[in-house]
Amino acid sequence: MNKTWIVTSETYLRQAKSWSFLMLILMPFLFIGLTFGITYVATPSKDKSDIAVISQDASLRQSFLKTSGVQTTSKYQTVNAAQDATKKSDINGYIVLKTKNNRQVSTVFHGPNEIASGDQAKIQRFLSHLQTQLNVQTAKLTTKQTQALAVQPSFKQQLQKKTASDKAAKTISFYILVFFVYLILTTYSSITAQEIAAEKGTKIMEVIFSSTTPRKYFNGKVYGVLLMIVTQLLVYLLGGALIVQLAQHSRLTANMWSQYAPIIGKVLHNLLSINMIFALAAVLLYTVVSAFCGALVTRVEDASKASQPVIYLNLLTFAMAMAFQGSPTSGIVTVFSYIPFFSSYLMPLRLINGTATMGAAVLSLIILLATVVGSMWYIGKIYGGLMLQTDELGFWGNLKRGLSLK
Amino acid sequence: MLSVAHISKHFGSLHALNDVSFDVHDGEIMGLIGQNGAGKSTTFHSILNFLKFDGAITWNGQPLSADDYNQIGYLPEERSLMSKLTITQQIVYLARLKNQPANVIKPKINDWMQRFAVKGQPTDKINKLSKGNQQKVQLICTLIHEPQLIILDEPFSGLDPVNADLLKQAIVAAKQRGAAIIFSSHDMSNVEEICDTLVMLRNGEVVLNGTVDGVRDQFGRTRLFLTTDWSAEQLSTLAGVDSVTAIGPNHYRLKLTNADAGPAIFDAVTKGHYIQEFSQQPPTLDEIFRTEAGGVDHE
């Protein structure tokens, strides 16, 4: 069997079976589940948010119950019963529907609190429709006149490209992407550097390098970490799809979902695009550099320090992305969006804001991927020397000695 | 056969190895001896291609290829395993890196654990084992794939006499199945006991190379063990006697200036009569090590 694959599978399985990785993957879902659960428990039950409808006119009452769109209950048919239910907080209140002399519709809402604005609008719409019908009847209009009066004014919105919802979608996409990339880079840089530094400290590397080449081993380690990241992304994608399904159908979130569906769609489109490839390539580059940093440490005790240079670099690029998020057309952003390490944050920023063409993105991605491949090749070449150099010579001394061994 | 031909390695101004050459034949055990820093580990690292070096190292007449490394069993000087793995996981992982399928190695693990008297179960984690048992597991990792070239850097270090014997048995068994074996050691009794040949390094250079008996004989039979009623003072007056050391009642060890002095001393001490012991021997490896490895006569 290919030795690179043996190292890849060992690295992947060892980490994937660990509690820390399981928690890393499940934490967002636990958090969302907890939030959802608390909201569910804290939200009043279905009956409590209902409104009772009372009317002498049975057909009018039925019409309201069926067509108003307000969350109603047909359980209470008299004012007294509805009053009692309102006092006991079983319902939100009740409305009394009347028609005066069959000419004017009148409705009164009785309840402890003001009726929700959305419900007010629905009630108003129902009443307007009903009143129009009564007016037509009262005026004894012919069908032709009725049709003439039924003509409604036309109102259309001719929106520019940069609408408010577009802007909100861009902002949300940017923040999700930047924080996601930052967290994933920090996490995996740390895991990689510490694992490699710990291995170096235990001298197991001599045994391993007597069996396979340092390049194969190094590539195997990087692929193993990459598999972990892909696993995490797949779990997030599947989990995300499940949450979307739940959100669309749950009574807690269905309204909100339908209201924000266009923005959510745009955010998902921004995330599940070339930006995701930038994120993956960035993780690969940071993993390779983290492995290099881990290989420069000489003592197990220093394993936790190994990832610091990469963490700081990530922090710098993250801070830069945050600083320039309001000015995606800046010349600095344009230049740095082609420079590996920075491009993973800044090119998606430009793409989300529509200030970069797909051609520019592909060029930046090619530079990033070439850097990944180049770093893997070079670090793979010097990896053996770095890992077998165990004298305490400081950063540059370790590097110099490591380079001289092989 | 492993052939090391004229290898040199420099670390800056330090000459770690200088024109080192030796051969290790199949079915042969070679002891690589020398003081700390003499170049033993650097020699091993050169064979394993951990280092750039000048010279040539070949296995069966060819430079070592990637496939040849599957035939190598290497035990480094500092023991280390992956502490979070179980014994089985560790052995199988390292064996798989030697191109050994897991289903071939797994059935052998219990047998090897018994052979080395490892206290623990195959499912035990490495970090739960005692240091001695971890060392034995590492030896199993080195030998379980039945390598043709075995390189052991200080394998007896830290082992008690019982476990050292178990290791010797394993090394001899590997020799009997035709493996070429090199091990370094500071304990000359182990070298003397199981090695066919030895190479001594001093400051990166080969100072001794040959069979164990051949190397000892190079120094002449200048050690004389004698049981006699003569006193030490009387013995020291004999021609060719350099020094006399009493090692028991009427029991002496004489250091001769020249092995040829032996017959005359025999005649003088026995005067034609029976004596219990008169044994003229070359110096022990330990004595040779003391005099040759550091380049200083410690006696």
UniProtKB/TrEMBL annotation, chain A:
Record localization: Cell membrane
UniProt KW Transmembrane keyword: yes
Main location: membrane
Top-rank lineage group of the source organism: Bacteria
Membrane topology: Multi-pass membrane protein
Transmembrane segments: 21-42, 172-191, 222-247, 276-298, 310-339, 359-379
Domain ABC-2 type transporter transmembrane: 19-377
Entry keyword set: Cell membrane, Membrane, Transmembrane, Transmembrane helix
Protein name as it appears in the record: ABC transporter permease
UniProt organism field: Lactiplantibacillus dongliensis
Automatic annotation (TrEMBL), chain B:
Keyword Nucleotide-binding: yes
Domain ABC transporter residues, every copy: 2-228
Keywords: ATP-binding, Nucleotide-binding, Transport
Superkingdom of this protein's organism: Bacteria
MF GO annotations: ATP binding
Keyword Secreted belongs to the record: no
Protein name, entry field: ABC transporter ATP-binding protein
Lineage per the UniProt record: Bacteria, Bacillati, Bacillota, Bacilli, Lactobacillales
